[in-house]
Design a protein that fits this description.
103 residues, elongated, 434 Repressor (Amino-terminal Domain)
């Protein structure tokens, strides 16, 4: 795959569709079985996997849930961002200044 920043949005969606197909195949599911398990239409899954169509974020999450692959979202989007040591230092200094002004 090319550098993701060189791809346009529809091409990125097509790549994600290909990855979803790979996950589905590794889970030993047909498109029909995934459709039944996820409640998403067979046409929608087929179009997404082939790059002919795009799906909403809600649909994508339903598909990942049906494939028992939600850890992708959990690892990259639902974890709190780490706070840098520099920011912690700044916050600590600001608290000291606030306390001093109250005296």
């Amino acid at each position: 795959m090319e550098n993701v920043y060189e791809l346009n949005t529809p091409d990125i969606c097509a790549e994600i569709g290909k990855k979803l197909k790979s996950i589905r195949i590794n889970a030993n599911l047909t498109q029909r079985q995934l459709a039944e398990k996820s409640g998403i239409s067979l046409m929608t899954i087929s179009g997404f996997e082939s790059g002919r169509s795009q799906v909403s974020l809600l649909t994508f999450i339903q598909l990942l849930r049906a494939l028992e692959h939600l850890e992708v979202i959990e690892q990259h989007f639902l974890q709190p961002e780490p706070v840098s040591p520099r920011l912690l230092y700044k916050m600590k200094r600001q608290r000291r200044k606030i306390v001093r002004h109250r005296k």
